[in-house]
Amino acid sequence: MSSSPRLMSAARLHGVRDLRVETLPVPEPSATELLVRVEACGVCPTDVRKFLIGTDESAYPLNPGHEWVGRVVEVGGDVRDWQAGDRVYGDTYAGYAEYAVLDTRGSRWSHGPLRLDDGMPTDRAVFIEPLADCIHAVRHQARVGEGDHVVVVGAGQMGLQLVAVAHAAGSNVLAVDPLEPRRELALRFGAAEAVSADGWEQHAREWAAGAGVAAVILALGRADAVDPALAALAPGGRLVLFAGFGDQAVRPVDLNLVHYQELSIIGSEWVGTPPNQRLECYEDAHTLLRDGGLDLERLVTSHCTLDTLVNAFTDVERHQAMKIVLNP
To answer: What is the CATH number of the domain that holds 237?
Structure first.
């Protein structure tokens, strides 16, 4: 391969807490693929959860990075709309590496390459995929808009993006988090109020004039947060389970409350589970980051390399970092 070295470094999971930086061949692009030199990859909480509790055994070894930005260095023989030097966003499990391939046709779980202009800061561009997920959760699953009262429980990096998207949609947003610095950030990203976790459901009902809120979005995988979320809803309200629950997936639910109050419990996975994808959310996220003044790079607290990625996972696990960006 003339345009790139034949070997690269990549970080792959081989099991629970077993992340290895390995030397691998640079992948050869097929006729419909791009070979991309990765410039940056966002560290997602989902990656950290896979590191901590594992994933499908058949998936190992797994490169879980899926929020990456880079430059095209080579194009497949059938590719016509891309060329070397183009800036691109990728969402496949390939981002924790120096090079990655991306199919221009997309796939069952991939939007395919998204063209980026040179003006968007890299630390902002890495947010396109997670922000698209948040747009889907707010717009299609919570279905909130102008004047609605919505609660976002958990003001981590994803929760703050949910706050920003709901605010941009014209909703009144209450953020819930036990950590004061995160509550302060929620106010900066558009929350009308931000409160601690103790007794938040009662506060939410009072905040919504005693009637309850239109939607609660759980941005943390805590099964014990389901009951207070249901209690905060107005009749006909929607509880959106945005975060995965990992090994805390089973929880009794008061079905009479759901029945008599006509409540809905709705999942929100990626930008929709195939075949019900909402891939247009990627373009919406790109537009919001480019034109909407949403400078999510303020959430980036540090950077790491492939060799320090384990430390980054640990910092996220211990709530010592908000958003970390890997530069391979």
So the answer is: 3.40.50.720
Distance, CA of 221 to CA of 299 (rounded, Å): 20
Question: Checking phi first, is residue 151 left (phi over 0); if not, alpha (psi -120 to 50) or beta?
Answer: beta
Residues 37 and 114 in one domain: yes
The SS3 call for residue 98 is: coil
Strands 87-90 vs 114-115: parallel, antiparallel or unpaired: antiparallel
DSSP state of 149: E
Q: What is the pLDDT of residues 184-212, one digit of tens each?
A: 999 999 999 999 999 999 999 999 999 99
Residues 201, 142: one domain? yes
Per-residue DSSP letters for 286-324? HHHHHHS---GGGGEEEEE-GGGHHHHHHHHHTT--SEE
- pTM value? 0.94
Tokens 């696990």 identify what position? 317
